[in-house]
Amino acid sequence: MQDVVEKVYEQVVARNRGEAEFHQAVREVLESLGPVIGKHPHYAEDGLLERIVEPERQIMFRVPWVDDAGQVHVNRGFRIEFNSALGPYKGGLRFHPSVNAGIIKFLGFEQIFKNALTGQGIGGGKGGSDFDPHGRSDAEVMRFCQSFMTELSRHIGPSTDVPAGDIGVGGREIGYLFGQYKRLRNSYDAGVLTGKGLAWGGSLVRTEATGYGTVLFAQSMLATKGDSLEGKKVAVSGAGNVAIYAIEKAQQLGAKPITFSDSSGYVVDEAGVDLELLKQVKEVERGRVADYVSRRPGARLVTEGRPWAVPVDVALPCATQNELDADSATTLLRNGCAVVAEGANMPCTPEAIEAFQAAGILYAPGKASNAGGVATSALEMEQNAGRTRWDFATAEAKLTGIMADIHDSCVEAAETYGRPGDYVLGANAAGFTQVADVMIAHGIV
Ligand code: NDP
């Protein structure tokens, strides 16, 4: 790292003690910006780097709620409004027991550059809670969401901050959150949340967008080598929103996904994932991956480790941060894997990324390859503002166009800064320069 950048990183570590994931995300961005600062030193002037790593606003609040047995629980709620240079803060809400300030800050920081790459005029933010929806009744999830929104509603709005889903927050949770917001504000502001149901302001393709976009990005990377996904074996991790629709799009493009996972283990289905069964188990029944195996002859459940031990051509980590480490990267490479596109946020550790880059394979960081979700959220906001609704083909064509543009701007930026094929530098440089230019235009605020 250059001295100027190293100093900013050290400040971040000193000021945000114990927030390992946030340090990791900042380091990854700052490290790759060396060639950008070298060519354009003004980006390191007027405290611009110091400002970009400091959230504009951090909100932390108590979320008390009562379970079905009458017992009171207290969770912690967060919303990090990180950067509004390009538009209202935009980013999901995560409900998972691991959530803390450092995790929400890392996600919010990544979101700034991801949202810039979409070209949709959205700033970066993220939020969530350490609430665990697993095993909770619908009534308990509803009461939690109502309590969470009672505080959050003071801070958000269609032109201020527009949350969406993430881990543990899907259509059901967005419904309860929107219902409470509408009741508190006495106002039908459809544009205050995205990922809404189709009957009340949602957009077609939003559910599919992150997974579809990840696979479209992998396809674009392969096209630069005159190749495609046709006939490729694919390992997917996760069995949630992103994983399911990555599997769907990979199958549509002629590839053969053979794995998926959740926190109880991973499934190997050499015959190819039965997507209908997976959707039934995960989306309808809210079951575990073992429920798939019990109904699918030939599929096996592995309860130790992650799916990266399975020989494949393409890996799509779609579960959570740091789920693919150096050892897994070495195994994937030894088995001939030539493409890794991140559906999750920061799923590969820095050491794994280093291994992929040293081997010269196609590697896409999540802030580029999983940007299809937030891009389609911006399309949902656009439809809400215009009181209109596009059909599936129109929305999907827009998503496809946006993913192609993101891919091309990463390629172009990597070339501009002298490292062709480096999608990490490409994504960070293309995202950072857009945000930085606007921050400079807005003055020191
Ligand atoms: P879901 O809650 O729908 O699914 C998450 C999946 O990952 C589940 O199968 C879950 O298993 C598994 N998982 C989560 N945490 C862990 C863990 N610590 N160890 C093992 N497995 C785990 O979330 P999404 O699919 O929406 O999100 C997945 C990833 O994609 C996240 O990194 C998210 O930030 C990122 N992302 C999501 C976007 C979206 O539009 N939804 C947009 C861009 C990025 P289990 O149920 O057992 O916990």
Automatic annotation (TrEMBL):
Gene Ontology terms: cellular component: cytosol
Binding site for substrate: 90, 111, 114, 165, 377
A single GO BP: glutamate biosynthetic process
Residue ranges of domain Glutamate/phenylalanine/leucine/valine/L-tryptophan dehydrogenase C-terminal in the record: 203-443
Active site per the UniProt annotation: 126 (proton donor)
Site (Important for catalysis): 166
An annotated Gene Ontology molecular function: glutamate dehydrogenase (NADP+) activity
InterPro entries in the record: Aminoacid_DH-like_N_sf, Glu/Leu/Phe/Val/Trp_DH, Glu/Leu/Phe/Val/Trp_DH_C, Glu/Leu/Phe/Val/Trp_DH_dimer, Glu_DH, Glu_Leu_Phe_Val_DH, NAD(P)-bd_dom_sf, NAD_bind_Glu_DH
Binding site for NAD(+): 210, 241
Annotated keywords: NAD, Nucleotide-binding, Oxidoreductase
Domain of life: Bacteria
PANTHER family, per the entry: NADP-SPECIFIC GLUTAMATE DEHYDROGENASE 1-RELATED (PTHR43571:SF1)
Protein family membership: Belongs to the Glu/Leu/Phe/Val dehydrogenases family.
Subunit structure: Homohexamer.
Name of the protein this chain belongs to: Glutamate dehydrogenase
